[in-house]
Design goal:
27% of the residues lie in helices and 19% in strands. β7 and β8 form a beta hairpin. The strands form 2 sheets. A 9-stranded antiparallel sheet has the order 2-9-3-4-1-5-6-7-8, with helices on both faces. A two-stranded antiparallel ribbon has the order 10-11. It is built from 9 helices and 11 strands. The protein is globular and about 55 Å long. It has 2 domains: 194 residues, no CATH class; 55 residues, no CATH class. The chain is an alpha+beta fold. The two termini are 32 Å apart.
């Protein structure tokens, strides 16, 4: 099952303290370094499945619809931490969702260009922070986040809907049973998450194909949605559009149906660059 809402199903909700961090604009080694894992350490090229036992905190990594998905079962996780998100998004974007199975204070964060743009913890009332904390708040409240909200969605479902709907993020449930690249996170004194190593600082993180120099952050989805509808009317399939824009077909379909109010600016630029046949 693609998308992300399946993570709020009975198999996972309240049972699995997962943290999923999606990163664009960075290679695997740069993402591992942002988490404080050594990409060159023995075993860093190994693969593992999510349910296998682990000793040290670790991060599992695999491609997911044009992004890299980093999966943790560590408590507390690294992927939701501001220092990790800033390091992971230096030349791109990062979106993290953490399910807290203890107090149910789930967390969501969006970072772009090395800054936390918007973040929220589902306390009562929810706590918003970041450079632009109000960017996603109206949509989150419309979906049902907040004590006064009237919604059938749980707070975790709201966060997953933000990640899937606004950013087009998707992870196939079957991927949990497939091997992921795995690396151990080695906490430093005081447990600071390691920023990219000095050696990687000389290698700028690459933008995804076709997005070099593209603006990071969110953009109004209207122009891109109208262009997608023109592309579909001209005979391009959702899969073809998704492949060229670095999206998933599910995201293209939702964009065409005007379900997404905002999308990443880099994604909008890629969509608008596709010529109508």
């Amino acid at each position: 099952m693609p998308g992300l809402m399946w993570l709020a199903g009975p198999r996972y909700a309240g049972r699995w303290p997962f943290c999923l961090t999606f990163v664009s604009g960075a290679g695997e080694d740069q993402v591992l370094a942002a988490f404080g894992a050594d990409p060159g350490a023995p075993g860093s090229q190994a693969t593992a499945r999510w349910a296998e036992p682990a000793g040290l905190p670790r991060v599992l990594l695999r491609p997911a619809g044009g992004w890299l998905a980093a999966l943790e079962q560590n408590t507390p996780p690294y992927g939701i931490r501001p220092d990790v998100l800033r390091a992971a998004s230096v030349r791109g974007e990062a979106v993290a969702i953490y399910q807290d199975i203890g107090k149910l204070n789930h967390e969501f964060a969006h970072a772009a260009d090395g800054q936390i743009v918007s973040a929220v913890s589902t306390t009562v009332p929810p706590r918003w922070s970041g450079r632009d904390p109000g960017r996603l708040r109206p949509l989150a409240e419309e979906l049902g986040l907040g004590a006064a909200a009237d919604s059938d969605l749980t707070s975790l479902e709201v966060l997953l809907a933000l990640a899937e709907g606004v950013f087009g993020l998707s992870l196939d449930e079957a991927d949990l049973d497939r091997p992921w690249r795995v690396a151990e996170i080695r906490p430093q004194p005081g447990d600071p998450a390691a920023s990219p190593a000095a050696g990687s600082a000389a290698r700028p993180l690459a933008h995804p194909p076709g997005t070099a120099g593209a603006e990071t952050g969110l953009a109004d989805a209207g122009p891109a949605a109208a262009h997608v509808r023109r592309l579909l009317a001209a005979g391009l399939s959702p899969a073809e559009i998704a492949d060229r824009a670095g999206m998933t077909p599910v995201g293209v379909d939702r964009l065409a149906r005007a379900v997404l109010p905002q999308i990443p600016a880099a994604t909008a630029a890629r969509l608008l660059s596709i010529d109508v046949p």
